[in-house]
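hiii so um. not sure if this is the right channel but i have a protein structure encoded as C-alpha cells and i wanna go backwards to a sequence. like what aa goes where. can anyone help
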C-alpha cells in the first residue's frame, strides 16, 4: 500500500496500558476483534452494543482473557444513549483516549426510490447519526487528553461507487465526515488523530444485520426489484465469508493508529477500483460497476 499523509495528531501513545478505548458495535465481528486486541494491549475497553445478550457474552470473553472491560448496552442512533455511554465510561475510568465508531447495519439494497422511509432512517440512524452522536458526546473528552484518536468504520463502499442502497450512501458520508473532522482538528491545532477504516470483506455477522432492524418497521415488500437486490446481497455475503478475520482487521487498525495513517484499507484487491474511481471522475464517468 502507498504511504498516506499523517493523521491529525501524534497518536503513537494512544494505545498504551491504562488508556481507555470506547468501541461501538463491540458485541460481534470487527468491534469484538478490536475490543479483544485493545484489551490485550492493556487498555480499558468500554464495549457498547445494541444487542444486550451478545454484548454480555462478548464482554465476558474479553474479560476472561484478562482484559479490563465495561459493557454498556447502547443504541448509537439515540443521542441520549450515547451521552449515557460517555457518562458511564467517565464514571468508570475518568477519561477516553480512543473512540472506535464501528457499529453498523446493512439494510436493503433495493432501488433507492422503493426503499421505505423507515429503512432509510434505520440505516442512516445507525451508520451516520450514530457517528455524529458519538462525536458530539466524546470529542470534548478526547480534546482534553494529551493524545487521543478517533477511528470511524466506513467501508470500501464508502470510497468507490456501488449500488448497496442507503448503506453505501451512509458509508460515503462517514468517509466525508472523517475527512472533515481531520481538517477541523488540524485547523484548531488539536492533538487528536483520525482514521477512517474502509474494510473490504471481513468474516463477521454483518450478513444478518437485519436482526437489528427495528421491529416496528413494516415487513419488506416482495418485488422483482427486491429479488434482484437479494442477489446483490447474496454476492455481498459470499464475499464477506471469504474475507479477513476480525483479528486481522484489528491488527491493521492498531498499526494504523500507531503510524498515524488516515485511510485504513484492508484489501489490496480493491486498490484498482479506488484508482479507477478517480479516473472516472476526471473523465466524466459514468461509474463502472464495482465488481466487473
Ligand atoms: N464485514 C464486512 O465485510 C464489512 C465490510 C465493510 C465495512 N464493514 C463495517 O464494519 C462495521 C462492523 O460490522 P461487522 O462486519 O463487524 O458486522 P457485525 O454484524 O458482526 O457487527 C456489527 C455490530 O454492530 C451492532 N449494532 C447494530 N446496530 C447497532 C446500534 N443501533 N447501536 C449499537 N450497536 C449496533 C450489532 O449488534 C453488532 O454487534 C460496520 O460499520 C460495517 O458497516 C463491514
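sure thing!! here u go:
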Amino acid at each position: 500500500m502507498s504511504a498516506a499523509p499523517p493523521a491529525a495528531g501524534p497518536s503513537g501513545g494512544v494505545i498504551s496500558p491504562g488508556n481507555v478505548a470506547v468501541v461501538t458495535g463491540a458485541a460481534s465481528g470487527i468491534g469484538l476483534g478490536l475490543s479483544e486486541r485493545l484489551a490485550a494491549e492493556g487498555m480499558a475497553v468500554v464495549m457498547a452494543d445494541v444487542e444486550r445478550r451478545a454484548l454480555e457474552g462478548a464482554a465476558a470473553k474479553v474479560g476472561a482473557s484478562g482484559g479490563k472491560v465495561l459493557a454498556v448496552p447502547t443504541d448509537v442512533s439515540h443521542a441520549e444513549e450515547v451521552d449515557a455511554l460517555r457518562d458511564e465510561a467517565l464514571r468508570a475510568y475518568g477519561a477516553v483516549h480512543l473512540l472506535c465508531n464501528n457499529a453498523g447495519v446493512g439494510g436493503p439494497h433495493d432501488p433507492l426510490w422503493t426503499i421505505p422511509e423507515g429503512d432509510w432512517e434505520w440505516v442512516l440512524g445507525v451508520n451516520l447519526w450514530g457517528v455524529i452522536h458519538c462525536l458530539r458526546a466524546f470529542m470534548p473528552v478526547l480534546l482534553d487528553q494529551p493524545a487521543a484518536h478517533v477511528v470511524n468504520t466506513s467501508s470500501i463502499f464508502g470510497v468507490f461507487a456501488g449500488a448497496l442502497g442507503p448503506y453505501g450512501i451512509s458509508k460515503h458520508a462517514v468517509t466525508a465526515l472523517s475527512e472533515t473532522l481531520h481538517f477541523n482538528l488540524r485547523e484548531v491545532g488539536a492533538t487528536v488523530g483520525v482514521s477512517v477504516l474502509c474494510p473490504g470483506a471481513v468474516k463477521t455477522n454483518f450478513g444478518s444485520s437485519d436482526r437489528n432492524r427495528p421491529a416496528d418497521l413494516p415487513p419488506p415488500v416482495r418485488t422483482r426489484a427486491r429479488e434482484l437486490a437479494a442477489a446483490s446481497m447474496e454476492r455481498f455475503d459470499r464475499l464477506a465469508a471469504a474475507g479477513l478475520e476480525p483479528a486481522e482487521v484489528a491488527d491493521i487498525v492498531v498499526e494504523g493508529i500507531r503510524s498515524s495513517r488516515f485511510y485504513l484499507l484492508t484489501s489490496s484487491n480493491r486498490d484498482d477500483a479506488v484508482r479507477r474511481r478517480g479516473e472516472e471522475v476526471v473523465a466524466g464517468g459514468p461509474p463502472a460497476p464495482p465488481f466487473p
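oh and Residues 117-143 form the longest helix (27 residues).
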